[in-house]
Write a structure and sequence with these properties.
By secondary structure, this protein is an alpha/beta fold. The protein has helices at residues 7-19, 24-43, 45-49, 52-56, 105-122, 142-156, 175-189, 213-227, 245-256, 279-288, 294-299, 330-338, 354-362, 370-373, 376-390, 396-420, 427-446, and strands spanning 61-70, 76-87, 93-99, 128-133, 165-169, 237-241, 260-261, 263-266, 269-273, 303-307, 318-321, 343-345, 366-368. It folds into three domains: 1-57 and 426-449, Glutamate Dehydrogenase, Chain A, domain 3, CATH 1.10.285.10; 61-192, Rossmann fold (3-Layer(aba) Sandwich); 213-364, 3-Layer(aba) Sandwich (Rossmann fold). Strand 1 (61-70) and strand 2 form a beta hairpin. The radius of gyration is 21 Å and the shape is globular. The mean pLDDT is 96.
């Protein structure tokens, strides 16, 4: 990975590497952002004088704690919990909780750093944070998940609040987990503070479209990119990775707009359904029954299951990586380009490695970075916070219209910033520069804190 920064940025980067040793995902996110914001700093030397970048790359607060709980056999289990509250210049900390065996401090830090700029791009007045645990909810009973969630929240609750830090769900944290976490928060605080958690059930303070928002928003962003070139998604084959919340609802919106998504995947392999994914069957397998993606092929005569392998070997005009970080590397990118991909939108957080991004951009593939393309989830979370604060409830259609408008604004900000800073069509530079400028302006106004 190149480190051809200006001397000032190079010093910040090297210091951050030394201070955060052994955290490659965070290093990767740092490099991408610092490389992108150089033209902003050239135009705004006051940001350098105020030490904005030095402060921005250091979290305001990092919380790590033990989470003990009993499994159904009565055995005591111990996991580790995290919350990295990265930056609150624009508003209360906002970002999801991830429950997955791969979660560690470096992963949470990278996600929280990305969240700063993603949240800034939405224009919703929210800061950046992320959290989670190395707990794996897969295969656990409801009571085991409840015991873990209650133990986790018994420590974290003291750091949360609707004006302080507002978590949401992420990988491994769906409506079941959010319900248990919110219930324990309510129990400990003796307050029904709806605005301190988003992604709640609609019947107890949640927002319509929140479940669909990240997947829908990714497709809306892709739609805006294509519209800027006078194109549309209609009739195009789409390759989608993942089979969780983001992937399912990206597939749903693609189908509604006339595209033909033909794949989904999990850690064991992937399916190809040339007739187009049967959305109801996918939801049945993954959301209702919580089974492996291979079961889809068992229940569908038009689908085939490929164990292991790479979903990116399947040809299609559009690609939507919606699984996890660094799932798509340079080799995969070269295969997609060879097979004629014309657009890639990141539904997950940083699913493409740096060499994959370079391959796409060199081949003039429209590339939408996650901090812009998947901002729909947090944007709708902010809408949920607004509804909680005003005790209103918007219907599905109104909420979806608001989401589409926010994603249109995110695209406009990234597109215009790329043009302004001399990199037209480069949505990576555009998203990072636009998000950074908003946060830096707020940090400058608020003094050295």
């Amino acid at each position: 990975m190149s480190t051809a920064f200006s001397p000032a940025l190079s010093t910040v980067y090297q210091d951050a590497l030394a201070r955060n040793a052994g955290e490659p995902e965070f290093h990767q996110a740092l490099h991408e952002v610092l490389e992108s914001i150089a033209p902003v700093l050239e135009r705004h030397p006051e940001f350098i004088d105020a030490g904005i970048v030095e402060r921005l790359v250091e979290p305001e607060r990092q919380i790590m704690f033990r989470v003990p709980w009993h499994d159904d056999s009565g055995t005591v289990r111990v996991n580790r919990g995290f919350r990295v509250q990265f930056n609150s210049a624009l508003g209360p900390y906002k970002g999801g909780l991830r429950f997955h065996p791969t979660v560690n401090l470096g992963i949470v830090k990278f996600l929280g750093f990305e969240q700063i700029f993603k949240n800034a791009l939405t224009g919703q007045g929210i800061g950046g944070a992320k959290g989670g645990s190395d707990f794996d909810p897969r295969g656990k009973s409801d009571t085991e998940v409840m015991r873990f969630a209650q133990s986790f929240m018994s420590e974290l609750y003291r750091h949360l609040g609707e004006h302080t830090d507002v978590p949401a769900g992420d990988i491994g944290v769906g409506s079941r987990e959010i319900g248990y976490l919110f219930g324990q928060y309510r129990r400990l605080t003796n307050r029904h503070e709806s605005g301190m958690f988003t992604g709640k059930g609609v019947q107890w303070g949640g927002a319509e479209v929140r479940t669909e928002a990240t997947g829908y928003g990714t497709v809306f962003f892709a739609e805006e990119m294509l519209a800027a070139r006078g194109e549309s998604v209609d009739g195009k084959r789409a390759i989608v990775s993942g089979s969780g919340n983001v992937a399912i609802y990206a597939i749903e919106k693609l189908q509604q707009l006339g595209a033909i998504p033909i794949t989904a995947s999990d850690s064991g392999g992937y399916i190809v359904d040339e007739t187009g994914i049967n959305l109801e069957l996918l939801k049945e397998v993954k959301e209702r029954d919580r089974l492996r993606i291979s079961v889809y092929a068992d229940r569908c005569s038009t689908a085939r299951y490929i164990e292991a392998g790479s979903v990116w070997d399947v040809p299609g005009e559009f690609a939507f990586p919606c699984a996890t970080q660094n799932e798509l590397d340079g080799h995969d990118a070269a295969t997609l380009v060879k097979n004629g991909v014309r657009l890639l939108a990141e539904g997950a957080n940083m699913p493409c490695t740096p060499d994959a991004v370079e391959t796409f951009q060199s081949a003039d593939v429209l590339f939408a970075p996650g901090k812009a393309a998947n901002a729909g989830g947090v944007a709708t979370s902010a809408l949920e916070m607004s509804q909680n604060a005003s005790r209103q409830r918007w219907d599905f259609s109104s909420s979806e219209d608001k989401l589409r408008e926010i994603m249109r604004g995110v695209h406009h900000s990234a597109f215009e910033a790329a043009e302004f800073y001399g990199r037209p069509g480069d949505y990576v530079v555009g998203a990072n520069a636009a998000g950074f400028k908003r946060v830096a302006d707020a940090m400058l106004a608020q003094g050295v804190i």
